[in-house]
Amino acid sequence: MATQIISTGASPFTPALDDALDELSAVEEGRVEVEVRLCEVPADMHGWRVDRVLARLIPEFSRSYLQQLMADGAVQLRGAVVLKQAARIAAGDRLQVELRATQQAMAFVPQAMKLDVVFEDANLLVINKPAGLVVHPAAGNWSGTLLNGLLAHHAGAACLPRAGIVHRLDKDTSGLMLVGKSRQAVEALVRAIAAREVNRQYLALGHGRWTGTVEQGVDQHIGRDIRNRLRMAVVLRDGASGKPAQTTFRLLDSGDQACLVACKLHTGRTHQIRVHMAWLGHPLVGDALYGGRTLWGMGRQALHAARLRLVHPTGGQPLDFQSAPPDDFKDALEQSGLRYNEASMG
Question: What pTM was computed for the model?
Fold first, then answer.
């Protein structure tokens, strides 16, 4: 069977997401009205945590939804807003709860946006994500995400975990992403990624002349940086916080100021390539979080998901997708004097 090659000019089941989708559906269908609920605490709940009491007294909503209402200031105890979920409550206390859609629930709404579609059929969607597009709604980015765009792109996305998104790219990383359009496809893609049957290759521009061998494997655990919770870091193998992470780097070109490498992911840890490149002494150009600097106008991490190879999740045919780096990446390469051609990603 011939491999289909398409070139352009990068855990899906979560209770929290299911809760948010259930809540949004309830609001949209009119099954839940915004209302004020008054609850009196019975004697057998004396001394309980307030979030546990709410979950017992308002069982038609998930505990995570009720906790979010608390965080939004929608719950009052003894006439005052209560924000602490672990606050203890006494028999006879009265709780006032304003039942309304939370930010999380309202985040899961369709928003039309132009998607750079590389491939699409009834079960699979492959897009070329631009730098700057957030994948999932989260604090600070409750709208305008890829998930919102997918909900608008096809009706079936609303019935799928994470609208069919099975892996992610950082906001400022560009390139190819896989999206399932049916539950069968989502489950098959998740299994294939877990079994390392999806070949994911990235193009990275790092600081400094390359110092290793032409091809170099990095097998270093990654965990949260204890000195900066926004960062990840290489950690000890026997540490409780780290997870195995393997990346293969292959040199494409190198100069005095920078090096261009192809990166093959064998695992999918948060910021994996960025962390491993910094550990090698070649932080990505523009990646301020891991020691990189802005060069040649590249103010984001110089990382592009350039190639995906996989077996179609339902059809079984081999697929090979390639994406040329975007203009800012190309400009940086030109100014750095480094050379790249798509065939080198093989």
Answer: 0.75
